[in-house]
Amino acid sequence: MSVQNFIPELWIARILTKLRKAYVYAALCNREYEGEIRQAGDTVRIGGIGPVTIRDYDPGVALVSEELEDEQQVLRIDQQKYYNFQVDDVDRAQANVNLLAAGMEEAADGLADAVDQYIAGFYTQAGSTTQLTAVNSQNVLAFLLTLGQALTENNVPRVGRFAVIPPWMTTKLTLAKVLLASEVSNDAFTNGYVGRAAGFDLYESNNVPTTNQGTEYKVMAGTTKAIAFAEQLVKTEAYRVESGFKDGVKGLLVYGGKVVYPDALVVGDCTQAAEPGVQ
């Protein structure tokens, strides 16, 4: 590929496709607002209404009517990440792979990781957090059931629930025979999906937030209703480097997220416990 043959629209589509295959947290958000952004600094208006009052019916009493209140929220596109890399002509000619194409793949992976870390940070806005639990294979299912209970007590629908867990918790679930090792190995390449347990679709990620010097994990669980997310790859350009025999590619991703329904999000506070009988 050369600068002359670079078609931005094709590469934008390619990178966005790669991003959505690599996302874990971002794939679990409400993303219906993406068509409304064009650049950093844009705001997206998220419509909503207040609660509707349910009253007892009495045939002899006039019906009470109420006016719905608009509870509109604002999603700000306030995050920006870019990539900018160069490939020497000699290196490209001697390489067995298309270095520019490989560079774009690496750029997409890096952007996906940055976005997922950003969304994982919304755990601080969850509607509830469970008590700190030391998790091993004997209580890992009970831990997940506690998260489900917290969501149910918040009147969150059971359909479409997810939980994002660290890799060590996948191991605990496999040891407990809640997940089958063969199923985990086959499914983990699709947005980190590792299986289903305790009413959750389970996703594995290295971006599960930690505190207390990396010993306490914040397992986020909920539904896609909880977080709104929007992104746009607003620019991707190829250029010729004037100071050498090189081609370069650069691009800019803008995005933003917001917890719009905190009650649809719960955080399980946990540590990794040793297995019984294992020193």
Write up this protein.
- By secondary structure, this protein is of the alpha+beta class.
- The chain folds into two domains: 3-120 and 230-254, Major capsid protein gp5 fold; 127-226 and 263-272, hypothetical protein PF0899 fold.
- Helices cover 26% and strands 30% of the residues.
- It is built from six helices and 13 strands.
- Strands 4, 5, 6, 7, 8, 9, 10 and 13 form an eight-stranded mixed β-sheet that branches. Strands 3-12-11 form a three-stranded antiparallel β-sheet.
- Strand 11 (227-241) and strand 12 (246-259) form a beta hairpin.
- Helix 1 (8-22) crosses helix 3.
- It is flat, with a radius of gyration of 23 Å.
- The mean pLDDT is 87.
Mean pLDDT: 87
- The Cα radius of gyration reads 23 Å
Q: Low-confidence segments, ≥5 residues, pLDDT <50? A: none
Distance between the termini: 55 Å
Shape: flat
Largest sheet: 8 strands, mixed
Could you tell me the number of beta strands?
Answer: 13
Helix content: 25-40%
Task: Give the number of helices.
Answer: 6
Number of domains: 2
Structural class: alpha+beta
Proportion of strand residues = 25-35%
Determine and state the CATH class of the largest domain. Alpha Beta
